[in-house]
Amino acid sequence: MKQTNLVILIVFVLLSSCYSTRITQDFLTPENKNQGLISNLELKFDEASFSSTFSTSQRLVENELIDDDFVSSSEYQIIRDNSSTAEIRSLIKKYAKFYGNSSDNQNGSIKFGVNFYDAKTNYSYAAISVYTLGALNLLGMPTGKFSHSVEFEAAIYNASGDLVKVYRGFGTDKYITGLYYHSFSQKRSSFIKSIKNALAQIDNQIFADREFLESSLQIN
Prior knowledge:
With 220 residues, this protein is an alpha+beta fold. It has one domain (2-216): Lipoprotein like domain (Double Stranded RNA Binding Domain, 2-Layer Sandwich). It has 9 helices and 6 strands. The protein has helices at 2-17, 35-38, 47-53, 73-76, 83-96, 126-131, 135-138, 183-208, 210-216, and strands spanning 41-45, 64-66, 69-71, 108-122, 144-158, 163-177. A 4-stranded mixed sheet has the order 1-4-5-6. A two-stranded antiparallel sheet has the order 2-3. Helix 5 packs parallel to helix 8. Residues 56-66 and 70-80 have low confidence and may be disordered.
């Protein structure tokens, strides 16, 4: 019996360690397959979509530091962002600047907007926790299950401002919390994963249309 309990304890502890994601600079840099194309486009944001999708809180001040990247308030104009929109903007900027997005020699622009965002909570583990008086939680059983879902829209325009094509990407990620893995850090890493998943879908679609876009934008 003691050996069985010990095995259960070890399994739960090992499982609990699998649910922690380290937030590193590599983790905060979305993949970009479109080196020659994105670097020739000016990055823009659909401010109205950000404002309507997320509630506002504090205003970004000049030269605010987000994930080791200084962000000028002039880039955000007068938009007031909460932590979610600031996170999204930061990741999109890292995606667009992955190969050195420059304001020189632009062949057009790419404007990102947010169509949808949702965060859900599943308390399926609550009944078991109550029934066992939290004993299984002490052994590593999760305390809750959560998910993030987000949909982006990326509109590409030529140098004259004419719309070339619109791409949409949907990203989702689920995570669980427990006594041995902090819920806040998991919440942020899961949110970042959902953003990266949505950006990856857009990136793949752009990559598939690469020849058409290069022709339409007159990119050699």
